[in-house]
Amino acid sequence: MTERSMQLGQANVLTGKQKRKRFPWGQVPSYLFLGAWSLFTIFALSWVALASLKTNRDVFREPFQIPADPQFVNYERVWLTSQVGTSFINSLIIVGLSVLLILVVSAPAAYILSRARFRGRGLLTMIYIGGIGIPYPLLFIPLFALLAGLRLINTMGGLILIYVSLSVPFTVYILTGFFSSLPQELEDAAVIDGATSFQVFRKVMLPLAAPGLITASIFNFIGLWNEFQLALIFIQDPEQRPLSLSLYTLKNSMTYSGDWAGLFAGVVIVIVPTIVLFVVLSERIISGMTLGSVK
Fold first, then answer.
1. Contact by Cβ (8 Å): 216, 174
2. pLDDT tens across 182-223, in order?
3. Contacts of 43 (CB under 8 A, 6+ apart)
4. pLDDT score for 181
5. Architecture of the domain made up of 73-293
6. Domain residue extents for the chain
7. Counting Cβ atoms within 10 Å, is residue 215 exposed (0-12), middle (13-18) or buried (19+)?
8. What is the pLDDT of residues 138-160, one digit of tens each?
């Protein structure tokens, strides 16, 4: 038998196996559900975006039609008169600084918990994991008393401090799994070359952990950008409000003004940054979570 005939025979065997491969009917309900949910989400977001470009009358008279004369003045009115613009800047400052401080605190802690070996390491890890499940309402009174003692009530600095402290357990949990997946050989090689423990972390392990850091940053940014409960309790000054509180105030004003187009414009302003973040960095989120889940 020639080599050519052997290759043809192997190809026929593979083709026969592929033909006998069954269609994954068991996954069809999952695909149908995810497809239907995706279509519903796209439809809902598109409807809100179109409604924000209509007049209040057209929102109810022509709810599903594309506006012939887009009313971009709705965004200008909401941005200027409802203090959404100021709240947008406040949210960028609060969330940006919070995410930065969360990474500064969580990355070294996760590195130590994943690479070092010391007594009580498992208990300390479980304490971090347990911190993820603590309900926020249980912390309102002690946090309020703590911030009152520090004179940080009704300040963006106090809200940043709360965001950082409550987000560290989740971030440490994510980064611990990611640091554990990094090869030990690179760390050993750096030690042999004379690097200190801090130099190994800063110059070797931290750059390798960049996908995990980006993933943790995105999750924290989205969670804190949409956070409402803590901001409602600890911020009362309109000049210090984040965007979620400003949207809540705008929603309450609809009871008297009936400016539904303006409300939809405010909703679009809130959700656009998170959608853009997901679209631009979705591959990094998936790769970071995948690498961090396998050691």
1. yes
2. 888 888 888 888 888 888 888 888 888 888 888 899 889 989
3. none
4. 83
5. Orthogonal Bundle (1.10)
6. 26-71, 73-293
7. buried
8. 888 999 898 888 888 889 999 99
Give first-to-last CA distance, the chain, whole Å: 46
- The mean predicted confidence, pLDDT, of the chain is 82
- Note whether 126 and 192 are within 8 A (CB): no
Please tell me the number of Cα atoms within 13 Å of 2 on its side-chain side: 3
9-13, 226-230, 257-261, range with greatest mean pLDDT: 226-230
Encoded tokens for 95: 């969330």
Q: Which amino acid is present at 4?
A: R
Amino acid identity of residue 282, one-letter, is S
Asked if 50 and 66 count as a contact pair (C-beta separation under 8 A), the reply is: yes
Tokens at 285, concatenated: 């989120």
DSSP 54: S
What digits encode the pLDDT tens for the residues 112-140? 888 878 787 788 888 888 888 888 888 88
Q: Tokens 């200027």 map to which residue?
A: 80
Which tokens hold the place of 24? 């994954």
